[in-house]
Amino acid sequence: MVSVSCIAAIVDFLDKKLSSRTKINKKMKFIDETKSVQNPINHGPTLVIHGGAGVMIRKNYPLKEKREYLKALEESLIAGYKILLDGGSSIDAVEAAVRIMEDCPLFNAGKGSVFSISGKNELEASIMIGTPLHPAGANTLLRTVKNPITLAKTILLDPECRHVFLGGSEAEKYAKDKGLEIVDPGYFWTEKRWRQHMEGLERQKLTSDSPNSLLLKDEFDASPKGTVGAVAVDKYGIIASATSTGTEGPLYRFSLCSSAHYGGLNNKKDGRIGDTPLIGCGTWADNETCGVSGTGDGEFFIRFGIVQDVAARVKYLGENVADAAINAVEEMRKVGGEGGVIAVDKYGNVAMPYNSLGMYRGYIRVSDGIPHTFIFNDE
After folding, report:
1. 247 is known to lie in a ligand binding site
2. pLDDT tens-digit readout, 17-71
3. Bridge partners (DSSP) listed for residue 128
4. Residues designated as active site
5. Whole-prediction pTM value?
6. For the domain bounded by 43-374, which CATH number is listed?
7. Is 229 assigned a ligand-binding role in the annotation?
8. In what order do the strands lie in the sheet with 372-374?
9. 298 marked among binding-site residues
10. pLDDT tens-digit map of 122-170
11. What's the CA gap between 204 and 65, in Å, rounded?
C-alpha cells in the first residue's frame, strides 16, 4: 500500500512540473486559451466568411461601394445562419454562404470573376468536413458551372465518386450529369471585370516595353485579390470549410537588380490553378483544431500550406485559433505574401487576421443572430 506521505510527494512533484511547463508555455505564447480552463466557453454554432483581401485604402473608399459590400456580406452570413439556426449541418451552411457570394458580381467568384490573359473566366472551388477521414471535394478550370462550390460539395457527398478533385471539361460533364446548373460562359462576364482585364493588359504591355520600370499596385481596388470563403461549426461540433474563386495570377514587379513576386492581379495565365481548390492550401477543416479558408497571394498559400499551417499550430504548438491564424499570416508576410485567413474552432471562437490593407469579412452566431461585417482594421 502506498503511504500518504508518498502520495503527497507525488502530487507535489506533479504540481511543480505542471507549474514549470505553464511558465515556459506562457513565455513562448503557446498557451491555447480554449484549453487553459477546465470548461472553455462554447459559443455554439458559428459562421465566419471572407470576400477577399486586397488593396483598399479607407480614405479613398467610396461610401456607396462600402455599403454594397457590407450588405452582400450580411446576406451571405444570413443564408448560412438560417441553416445553422434550424439545426442544419456546417457543410450546408458554408455552401449557402459561398453561393450568395458566387452569385454576387461584387466578388471574384462565380458571376463577376476576373479574366485570364486570353479573356476567359476560369473558376475553381473546394469544400471540406472536419471529421476524422477529412472528406473533401474540389474542382478547377470550370467555364460553365454556375456554382463551383455546389459542384465541390456534390463531389464530396457522392458515394459513387471516389475522387476528391475533378477539373476542366470532365468536371463540367460530371456537374451536368448530376443535374447542377450549367450556364453559358458569358454569364460570368461583367463590364467592371472586363474593364479591369483590358487595363491590366495595358499595364502589362507598358511593363514589358520598359522592363526596368516599377509597376505599382492600385491605391484603391474594391475588387480585391483572392477568393470568397466560409467556415462554420454546427451544433454537433462538426466544422466545415469552403472556398471559391475566379482565380487570379501573379503580377511581377521589376527593378534594375531583381524581380520579386506579388500575387493578386487579373489576367492570369490560362490554365493556372490557384490555392483555392487545393486542400491544405486554400481550404482546411479539422474538428479537433479548426476550419480555415484563405484569400490572397495564391502562390504563397500553395508553397507554404498556409491554411493547414493554422490547424497545425493549434495541434502541435497548443496555440489558440486566434494566435495560430495571426502567426500563420505573419509568417506569410515575412516571405512576401499578402492576404488573410478566416478560422473557427469547435467552440465557435473566430479569427479573421490579414496583412493587406483590408479584407471583406464577417461572422454570425446562432446564440445572438447578429451579423458582424468588416472591411478595415479599425472597425
Report:
1. no
2. 334 433 333 332 323 333 434 568 999 999 999 999 987 778 878 899 999 999 9
3. 136, 241
4. 227
5. 0.83
6. 3.60.20.30
7. no
8. 165-167, 136-142, 123-129, 239-245, 228-233, 46-54, 358-365, 372-374
9. yes
10. 999 999 999 999 999 999 999 999 999 999 999 999 999 999 999 999 9
11. 27
